[in-house]
Amino acid sequence: WPQAFELFLEMTQADPPCSPDPITFNALLGVCQRSGQWEQALDVLAWMEQAGVQANVQMYATMITCFGHAGRLDDAEALLPAMRRAGIQANAVVHTALINACRLCGDVDRAFRALRRMEEAGVVPTVVTYNVLLGACTEINGTSCC
């Protein structure tokens, strides 16, 4: 992951500078998520704000997944109200990412609550949503818990 951040720095310091866009920042967030660097992901969000780049749905889904891998389920859940405040509506990908974060943290009850909130928000679960939830049911302590 350090190479990705070095490349980002090189990009922004090039002559002439190359301005990062939402795709650039989402790529960096993906690097953070895959390498377990949730604190670095927070830095990326701060850089986005400084650059005047608005977070999008995919970025929120990536952050939720990043927090889930880090065991920071409260932080993952807090992103849904943050999205609403930013005027961004969570879609099935975002809600499924939260359900998966619950699965990663071993909290099947919370995963089902996330599904109910998804449905209450009028977002239709997808086959991926249900597959993630089914996985949560079978992964807790290696036995079926649902």
Automatic annotation (TrEMBL):
<dbReference type="Pfam" id="PF13041">
    <property type="entry name" value="PPR_2"/>
</dbReference>
<dbReference type="InterPro" id="IPR002885">
    <property type="entry name" value="PPR_rpt"/>
</dbReference>
<dbReference type="Pfam" id="PF13812">
    <property type="entry name" value="PPR_3"/>
</dbReference>
<keyword id="KW-0677">Repeat</keyword>
<protein>
    <recommendedName>
        <fullName>Pentacotripeptide-repeat region of PRORP domain-containing protein</fullName>
    </recommendedName>
</protein>
<dbReference type="InterPro" id="IPR011990">
    <property type="entry name" value="TPR-like_helical_dom_sf"/>
</dbReference>
<feature type="repeat" description="PPR">
    <location>
        <begin position="56"/>
        <end position="90"/>
    </location>
</feature>
<feature type="repeat" description="PPR">
    <location>
        <begin position="21"/>
        <end position="55"/>
    </location>
</feature>
<feature type="repeat" description="PPR">
    <location>
        <begin position="91"/>
        <end position="125"/>
    </location>
</feature>
